[in-house]
Amino acid sequence: MTGFLAELGKKLAERWLELLVLPGALWVAATVAGGYLGHAHAVDVPLLRARLDQQAAQSRSAATLLLLVVAFLLVSAAAGLLASALGGLVERAHALVGHYGAPRQLRDVRIGLWRRADRCYRRALAAAARATSPRVRRAANRRVFRALARRQHLGDAMPTRPTWVADRFAAADSHLDTKYGVTPTVVWPRLWTLLPDALRADLGTARDAYSAGCRLIGWGVLYLLLGCAWWPALAVGAVAVVTGSVRSRSAARTLAELTVTAVDLHLADLAEHLGLSTIRPPDRAVGEWIMNALR
Fold first, then answer.
1. In sequence order, which residues have a C-beta less than 8 Å from that of residue 172 and are 6 or more positions away?
2. Which residues, at least 6 apart from 281, have a Cβ–Cβ distance to it below 8 Å?
3. CA atoms of 147 and 45, how far apart (whole Å)
4. H helices of 59-196, where?
5. 269/267 Cα distance (integer angstroms)
6. 294 pLDDT exceeds 70?
7. CA–CA distance from 216 to each of 148, 162, 295 (Å)?
8. Which of 165, 194, 222, 234 would be a feasible disulfide site paired with 252, CB 3.0-4.6 Å?
């Protein structure tokens, strides 16, 4: 038990260092650089070196240096916690339904953009159908593929939620409800205990990747705020937000697909453990029986 606890503590320390302290140290270093240089001398490296040397000369005592190191680590960890909290807010924003207020307006904007992209796709499809010569048909087909890619970038179907991620999760829930009549939030805690280790690991990896993408967006927000005092941070923040958005979308798609896969493959196992003996593949009748058994 002592060895297990020591190994667990070691892994937690490594994860704390990787997720919070190291990214936080970069942000704190950027904050220090921005505080010394400002907008006017944003990329003046010799000036930064000179001011750091001057600050080091004023802090010669070992106690002062130790306090500075401790303060640096504490602020780095605090920045990491703040970025994680912002990532959590991004995850909550992704889950918004959009029945009222600003989320509803955002949903309506996405619907308008999707409908416009859908009209462009249908016009391109009609133009390709009217093409006569092979050269004109190839050019028309390329326009069809581009129009379809633009529409799919906004969503596989007309949006029903304020964000693409919320749409993807809602589509998975709708698929399971239509096919099996089950509510994932009710079935999933029981189903999780029956999943094989490999599928659990894949789901955990996808979930961690999704959280990491949202957390990267949180770091991007912090760098964008720092950009108010030091303009290079604006570029870093913009790249972080875009990269985090792409990664979180990709991970959300994988997570939704794995969730549907887990239900498809193991819903019959759950029915059997609940007492329903059947050799047929799970269907809506089986799903409704499971829901009644769990209520």
1. 184, 256, 257, 259, 260
2. 268
3. 46
4. 62-94, 101-130, 134-154, 164-180, 184-192
5. 5
6. yes
7. 29, 20, 39
8. 165
Is residue 263 within 8 Å of residue 225, measured between CB atoms?
A: no
Span 51-101, pLDDT tens digits: 766 766 666 666 667 777 778 778 888 888 899 899 999 998 888 887 778
Determine the average pLDDT of the residues in 192-213.
Answer: 92
- pLDDT greater than 60 at residue 290: yes
- Confidence (pLDDT) at 8: 37
Identify which of 76, 95, 63 has the alpha carbon closest to the alpha carbon of residue 30: 76
Q: What integer best gives the mean pLDDT of the chain?
A: 83
pLDDT in tens, 101-144: 888 888 889 899 999 999 999 998 888 888 778 888 888 888 88
More confidently predicted of 243 and 155? 243
Token digits of residue 48? 């930064």
User: Please, what's the b/e burial string for 160-189 (b: 16 or more CB within 10 A of its CB; e: otherwise)?
Assistant: bbbbbbbbbbbbbbebbeebbbbebeebee
Q: Are 192 and 200 in contact (CB under 8 A)?
A: yes
Reading the block at residue 128, the tokens are 């390709």
Let me know: does 233 contact 223? Beta carbons within 8 Å. Answer: yes
Q: Alpha-carbon distance 245 to 238, whole Å?
A: 11
Q: Give the residue from 230, 222, 250 showing the smallest Cα distance to 20.
A: 222
Which residues have a Cβ under 8 Å from the Cβ of 273 and sit 6 or more positions away?
194
Gap between the Cα atoms of 194 and 271, Å rounded: 11
- Residue 101 Ramachandran class (φ > 0 left, ψ -120 to 50 alpha, else beta): left
CB distance 79 to 222 below 8 Å: yes
What pLDDT shows up at residue 7?
42
